[in-house]
């Protein structure tokens, strides 16, 4: 849905990850390099918090 993202686990943990995603509507995609994400997380701690929460939530969902 609007605002969703994927790939946070690979960015946070420096581990290859494959995910399958499917857009419900036409969308634009943007690929971020890990260095850029790290810089953004350093400058804006709320980004780090959001990505870490998303990674935790996805990990829990995988277990269930």
Automatic annotation (TrEMBL):
Pfam families reported for this sequence? cNMP_binding (PF00027)
| Membrane as UniProt keyword | no
CDD domains the record matches:
CAP_ED
Going by the UniProt record, its keywords in alphabetical order are: Ion channel, Ion transport, Ligand-gated ion channel, Transport
Cross-referenced Gene3D superfamilies: Jelly Rolls (2.60.120.10)
- Extract the InterPro entries matched here: CNG_cation_channel, cNMP-bd_dom, cNMP-bd_dom_sf, RmlC-like_jellyroll
- Specify the Cyclic nucleotide-binding domain's residue ranges: 1-41
| Designated name of the protein | Cyclic nucleotide-binding domain-containing protein
Species in which this protein is naturally found: Marinobacterium aestuariivivens
């Amino acid at each position: 849905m609007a605002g969703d993202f994927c790939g946070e686990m690979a960015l946070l943990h420096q581990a290859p990850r494959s995910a399958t995603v499917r857009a419900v509507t036409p969308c634009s995609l943007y690929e971020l390099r890990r260095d850029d994400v790290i810089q953004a997380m350093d400058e804006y701690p709320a980004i780090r918090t959001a990505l870490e929460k998303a990674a935790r939530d996805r990990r829990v969902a995988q277990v269930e």
